[in-house]
Design brief:
Number of helices: 8
Distance between the termini: 37 Å
Number of domains: 2
Oligomer: single chain
CATH topology of the largest domain: AhpD-like
Radius of gyration: 14 Å
Number of strands: 0
InterPro entries: 4CMD/NDH-1_regulator, AhpD-like, CMD-like
Pfam families: CMD
CATH class of the largest domain: Mainly Alpha
GO molecular function: peroxiredoxin activity
Order of helices and strands: HHHHHHHH
Strand content: under 5%
CATH architecture of the largest domain: Up-down Bundle
Structural class: mainly alpha
Protein name: Carboxymuconolactone decarboxylase
Organism: Methanobacterium paludis (strain DSM 25820 / JCM 18151 / SWAN1)
Length: 123
């Protein structure tokens, strides 16, 4: 295992302890390189950069995925990830509401629905 993959695996396991294995397993039979790219690049390079803490990175990711409006499963995973690294429910809700100005009401409402699902799942 190379250094980028090891760093990425450690980071993804920190943020998404339940989902990281599923991501790699779900891609293994059809696109194993895609799973490796996610681990090495997104988590091994981007998430380990200095300058932002994990809470800030996860809030930025929740904002971006909310604004995109077409990445529901990833948004739910990153809402849970944000909670795992110490974001409060209020911070998550506020960053989603902030997206009204940039992505519109439908994207923000869908983001809030995703947050509601995650909050109910976690309890």
């Amino acid at each position: 295992m190379d250094k980028k993959y090891s760093k990425g695996k450690e980071m993804i396991d920190t943020i998404h302890p339940d989902a990281s294995k599923a991501l790699i397993e779900n891609l293994k039979d059809i696109a194993p390189d895609l799973g490796r790219f996610v681990v090495e690049f997104a988590y091994g390079e981007l998430y380990t950069r200095p300058g932002l803490d994990l809470k800030s990175r996860e809030l930025a990711t929740v904002a971006a995925l909310t604004a995109m409006g077409n990445a529901g499963p990833q948004l739910r995973d990153h809402i849970e990830g944000a909670l795992n690294v110490g974001c409060s429910r209020e911070e998550i809700v506020e960053v989603i509401i902030q997206m009204v100005a940039y992505a519109g009401f439908p994207a923000a409402i869908n983001g809030i629905e995703a947050a509601k699902e995650v909050f109910q799942k976690i309890g």
